[in-house]
Amino acid sequence: MRIKLYSDNNDPKQIQRIVSALQDGEIIIIPTDTTYVLACNALKERAVERICQLKQINPARHPLTIVCYDISAISEYARVSTPTYKLIKRNLPGLFTFILPGLSKLPKIFRSKKNHEVGIRMPKQANTQEVLRNFAGPLMTTSIPQDEDEEEYLTDPELIDEKWGSRVSLVVDGGKIQLKQSTIVDCTDEEPVIVRQGDGILKL
After folding, report:
1. Statement: the pTM of the whole predicted model exceeds 0.90
2. Is the domain 2-196 a CATH 3.40.50.150 member?
3. pLDDT tens, N- to C-terminus, the chain (204 residues)
4. 8 Å CB contact between 160 and 29
5. Where exactly are the structural domains of the chain?
6. Local structure of residue 182 (DSSP, 8 states)
């Protein structure tokens, strides 16, 4: 199923259909600032496991990423020092993934990695923000698996629905987007370290 959303004035019933799917532990595809992503309720461990299987992610080797609506929500699921809080506040929402020490409020699968790291994102994308505001919880997200020559299958919701519609509960259609890459910043030590320079320019 594909649900079309706009930048504003969306039908509340459509938003509720998306929120209900997430509450029920279903997997959806939703747009972000960088690409369309697989997403689920981060607090439903079985849903997170299903996404890891779809993407062939080993959570013991790669930190999982959650998307939060605001900074206060981030502090519920990750340990945020005062300097890191200030850094995040200067740069989010935006094209960044901050790696932080995860807290036990997240399911056990997030603690598979030895040091319990978790990636944190807060996109500006209007559709994602609206869903997060109504869902009132974190989403676990990861980019859609793709071949190198299939960039349009990350940015065009019609093509994404054609390829993935039968494997997820619904595709949130926010229109075609421009493919970008988030900048990954490791904040698990005292000084932040840019692990991958993407389109986000970090304000220190």
Report:
1. yes
2. no
3. 999 999 899 999 999 999 999 999 999 999 999 999 999 999 999 999 999 999 999 999 988 999 999 999 999 999 999 999 999 999 999 999 999 999 999 999 998 887 899 999 999 999 999 999 999 999 999 999 877 667 888 999 999 999 999 999 999 999 999 999 999 999 999 899 999 999 999 999
4. yes
5. 2-196
6. P
